[in-house]
Design goal:
This protein is about 0% helix and about 55% strand. It has no helices and 9 strands.
Amino acid sequence: MATQILAAGYAAANSSDQTVDVGGTAVVFLKPASGTVLHNESHVYVAIKTSAGAYIRHDFLGAGKPTAVEIAGPVTFRVERDLLPQAASCGVEIGS
């Protein structure tokens, strides 16, 4: 079952930290604000948290690109959305 980690929108926003334990995996995927088709400018980044507490953008999820990524633990990450055109409103969910 999937859980929303970043509400649909077009404003710049970050999800809270997500943790995947040793031996675990999580699937992170982009979803449109409504309907079933992503706008061609919808996108987010998956940013991995370093041991120093900084975030490094690791994966790009977007329409026309991969819209999902599987993340293997142990790792802490968040999803980052830059300002998008209003029509490109999107959110992110996570499943295990």
